[in-house]
Design a protein that fits this description.
The complex is a heterodimer.
Chain A: E1 10-12, H1 22-26, E2 32-35, E3 38-41, H2 51-55, E4 61-63, E5 76-81, H3 83-86, H4 95-104, E6 109-112, H5 117-129, E7 137-138, H6 143-152, H7 166-180, E8 188-194, H8 197-204, E9 216-219, H9 220-233, H10 249-253, E10 268-272, H11 274-285, E11 294-298, H12 314-330, H13 344-350, H14 368-384, H15 398-406, H16 416-424, H17 430-441, E12 446-447, E13 450-451
Parallel strand pairs in A: 5-6, 5-8, 7-11, 8-9, 10-11
Antiparallel strand pairs in A: 1-4, 2-3, 12-13
Chain B: E1 2-8, H1 17-28, H2 33-53, E2 56-63, E3 67-75, H3 82-85, H4 95-99, H5 107-114, E4 117-123, E5 127-135
Antiparallel strand pairs in B: 1-2, 2-3, 3-5, 4-5
Helix pairs in contact in B: 1-2, 2-5
Classes of the chains: A alpha/beta, B alpha+beta.
The complex binds iron/sulfur cluster (SF4) (2 copies).
Chain lengths: 457, 139
């Protein structure tokens, strides 16, 4: 396999994986195969959407994150967290308490990412003024969507909004603010509290940016537990004072479905859920739907409230965030400035993204003549397969197996139906057939015709 | 390589099937995304034309390393003046078809914009044949 383009945040824990194939069937880009009884993710095809993580029954898909203690490698430790983090906590726990507790557990500064939304929103509206751009403009907010476009809809890469995200702006702002206070660059650690794997991948290997200013990504779920526990313990540190927590309504709601599309010009649509996004982008690519100015696409249902690392139910999170907005309104909506606007021009200069390159991974070969030969062969192979997509070969569909075969990654005898025919014709014997099955599903998994867990033997 | 697709007149639900399939094929063959897009947009328009105006049709797609040739052959009322049909905004689509958001008269001019060669022949009362050629290398 070629060197992967990207760092990926989703990994398979081979010790835990039981090779049940749920993830293989859930993957929207067909990036997963089962081999030797374990799930294997093709790094060139993976977009870090986390669908595999959602369906794994034994939590074998893990997110490659930075451990909490790494924050202590820095003298100044900034927690950049998204508004959905506040949405995890029950109503009786106020935002100010969460802010304060983050300081108590070890951060020296806290900053809610969505405070940067106002600047981004303004920049998007300015961006839209240039009508020569490819339409619809596709939001650059969700990294899984950017990667989806690169892999599956390469002709739409120019449609991606070439502006960074609220977390990019917030990170740039906070770093600059501390540096301006005379703090040495190396002493500043900026940690993004992430609701998903996609954001981690975006930090470790950003698309359209050279290097992220974020030092690390902390799993939102882990941090939630740490903070909640601290709050439950009682005895808060009264010497610490929380910073103001008010945000504009549209800032709090930005990462939820319609949060962004409702704040841009022209005809804008919000699509959430990776499969919905794929279905829609397909139509956009064919120009089956036209006349749309802006597309907000999010890999997760209900936007970031549906991120895989959120401990709470997405609908409850949305409700709480809306409650927070309502409470803000009751208070009269006065916002204490965070100082970000003093850096507005600086931040806007940092906002444009470089080119987003296609990385079409669907091709059978880079050379078209070769690819045609392989396609013909794959078609021929496919007609020999039963077409029931049972997955017993370790590939998600019969077509996927036939393409794996022509790419040299599998063989026809991986298909259990083909094996049966081969055995009947005396071309292979029972032992060979079992050996093949062992290769796919792990040694000794098949015992007397029943699928068993590896360790039960 | 040859591929064949059938189109049913009036079946708007499935208009776009052939273009999506052809798109998948071209992606697997590593055809430049920009060229793929042109082929698919032209084919989609042509597909919708058949669905909107004809009784049924067949699409032949022929792919090789220097060009993609598409022929849509339909049985239908045919076009009396191709010249007129080529004009932007001209449409013979029935009110019903227009109501569904199709047939705004974008069809043929949009195909022509996205094709390197466009040949249309038609016999009134019999049907229309549309040939779209896209070159993969600069000619
Ligand atoms: S879903 Fe099944 S195959 Fe995939 S990682 Fe989890 S246990 Fe392994
Ligand atoms: S919608 Fe939000 S939480 Fe989900 S993958 Fe995209 S950025 Fe992450």
């Amino acid at each position: 396999m070629d060197a992967p383009f990207f760092f990926h945040a989703l990994k398979v824990n081979e010790e835990v994986c039981i090779g049940c194939s749920h993830c293989m069937n859930a993957c929207p880009t067909e990036a997963i195969r089962i081999w030797r009884g374990k799930a294997v993710i093709d790094e060139n095809q993976c977009i870090d959407c986390g669908e595999c993580h959602r369906v794994c029954p034994v939590n074998a898909i893990y997110v490659d994150q930075d451990e909490f203690d790494t924050i202590f490698n820095y003298k100044y430790r900034v927690a950049l967290f998204p508004s959905v983090f506040i949405g995890q906590f029950p109503d009786e726990i106020k935002a100010s308490q969460v802010y304060k507790t983050l300081l108590e557990i070890g951060f020296t500064h806290v900053y809610e990412v969505e405070r940067a939304v106002e600047i981004l929103n303004e920049s998007i509206l300015e961006y839209q003024e240039d009508t020569s751009r490819e339409h619809p403009i596709i939001s650059s907010f969700c990294p899984a969507i950017i990667r989806l476009v690169q892999v599956k809809f390469p002709s739409l890469v120019d449609n991606i909004l070439k502006l960074g995200t609220p977390s990019d702006i917030a990170a740039q702002f906070y770093k600059k603010k501390l540096i301006d206070k005379g703090i040495a660059k190396e002493d500043i650690g900026i940690f993004y509290i992430t609701p998903c794997a996609a954001k981690i991948a975006a930090i470790k290997s950003p698309v359209g940016e050279e290097k992220s200013v974020v030092s690390g990504a902390i799993n939102l779920n882990n941090l939630y537990n740490r903070v909640y526990r601290k709050i439950k313990e009682g005895n808060p540190d009264n010497t610490i004072e929380a910073e103001p927590t008010e945000l504009y309504d549209f800032e709090i709601l930005w990462t939820l479905t319609k949060g962004e599309s409702s704040r841009v010009n022209g005809r804008a649509l919000a699509i959430d859920g990776i499969h919905n996004a794929m279905e829609f982008l397909e139509k956009v690519e064919n120009e089956e739907v036209t006349g749309i100015d802006f597309l907000e696409c999010r890999a997760c249902h209900e936007g970031c409230a549906g991120g895989i690392l959120n401990p709470q139910n997405r609908f409850l999170i949305v409700e709480r965030m809306q409650d927070r907005v309502a409470r803000n309104r009751e208070k009269g909506g006065n916002i204490t400035p965070s100082g970000i606007n003093n850096y507005k021009e600086y931040l806007k200069r940092k906002l444009p993204l470089g080119e987003v390159v296609p990385r079409s991974m669907m091709m059978l070969d880079t050379n078209m003549a070769e690819a045609m030969k392989k396609m013909k062969l794959a078609q021929k192979i496919e007609t020999q397969l039963p077409g029931i997509d049972c997955g017993a070969c370790g590939a998600p569909t019969c077509r996927a197996l036939s393409e794996d075969i022509v790419k040299g990654n599998a063989s026809l005898s991986h298909c259990v139906f083909v094996q049966k025919v081969l055995m009947k014709n005396g071309e292979i014997n029972m032992d060979t057939a079992f050996a093949i099955i062992d290769k796919i599903w792990g040694e000794q998994r098949v015992v007397r015709g029943s699928l068993k867990k590896n360790n039960e033997i | 390589m040859d591929f064949i697709f059938n189109i049913e007149g009036g079946d708007f639900t499935n208009a776009g099937f052939a273009s999506s399939e052809v798109k998948k094929i071209l992606k697997k063959l590593n055809v430049d995304p920009k060229i793929t897009r042109r082929v698919v947009v032209a084919l989609y328009e042509a597909e919708v034309n058949v669905v909107a105006h004809a009784y049924r049709g067949v699409i032949h797609v022929d792919i090789d390393t220097d060009h993609i040739g598409i022929v849509l052959d339909d049985e239908g009322p045919g076009i009396s003046s191709i010249e007129q049909a080529m004009q932007e905004g001209f449409s013979t689509a029935s009110p019903k078809v227009r109501e569904m958001g199709f047939g705004a008269g974008m069809g043929l001019p949009n195909i022509s914009k996205n094709a390197d060669v466009l040949n249309i022949t038609s016999e009134v009362g019999k049907g229309t044949k549309v040939e779209i050629i896209t070159y993969l290398k600069p000619q």
